[in-house]
Design a protein that fits this description.
Layout lengths: L2 H18 L5 H7 L6 H13 L3 E6 L2 E6 L9 H37 L3 H27 L6 H33 L6 H8 L13
Antiparallel strand pairs: 1-2
Helix pairs in contact: 1-3, 2-3, 5-6
Length: 210
């Protein structure tokens, strides 16, 4: 390695340790410099800086850590340190609140992006309401007729009816979940939202879920 490159690496390491003013191992410095320089080169630069007295070396057990010489920094009064500690606590709490808010919004975003869009919901609800009306008409006709129905056919009808009711409830639940998610960021009430996107609910059609 050329002398010029060695000097460049030493300057980068020294500048980083001075800016951060925290203890780091050789591996920490190597990683925090985005692995721009080889680990061996970084290790050599750190050892040379420590030997030259430009940084401080401490040994803890089997590990060595390095940090900037504290003599280059101005003395700080006790009250200033206390104020800094208090600010760190406040900023840490603020960070936690922001992270919690971000996680909540990410969860909502994931739910919205994985669910049907409003236009799809509108189409599905209309199709479902139409199917429900047709099925109820057919069922009422079957219940009122005096024509004998074979047990197999009757069972098939009831099975289809149960299947449709389950699908009805499932789609109604999905639609309600999506509508509730939209309402979290919607400035008006649920009734206004449904009117604006043109959704007719079961209640509007006086069709109760069985």
């Amino acid at each position: 390695m050329s002398k010029c490159k060695e000097t460049l690496i030493m300057e980068a390491v020294l500048s980083y340790l001075s800016r951060q003013n925290r203890p780091y191992s050789v591996l920490d410095v190597f990683n925090n410099l985005n692995k721009e320089y080889g680990k061996t080169a970084v290790n050599k630069a750190i050892e040379q800086l420590a030997q030259d007295g430009k940084i401080t070396e401490k040994t803890y057990g089997k590990q060595k850590i390095y940090f900037a010489n504290q003599s280059q920094y101005p003395d700080v009064e006790e009250n200033e340190l206390n104020a800094m500690d208090a600010e760190i606590v406040t900023l840490s709490e603020t960070l936690k609140e922001i992270q919690s808010s971000v996680r909540s919004k990410e969860t909502l975003l994931q739910a919205l992006t994985s669910s049907m869009i409003t236009e799809d919901i509108e189409v599905k609800l209309r199709e479902l309401n139409k199917d429900i009306v047709n099925l109820k008409t057919k069922l009422n006709h079957l219940k009122s007729t005096t024509v004998y129905i074979e047990p197999v056919q009757k069972n098939k009808i009831y099975t289809e009816n149960e299947k449709c009711i389950k699908e009805w409830r499932k789609r109604k639940r999905i639609a309600n979940d999506v509508i509730e998610a939209i309402l979290e960021g919607y400035p008006k009430g649920k009734k206004t939202l449904l009117e604006e996107i043109g959704i007719e609910t079961d209640e509007d059609a006086n069709v109760p879920v069985p």
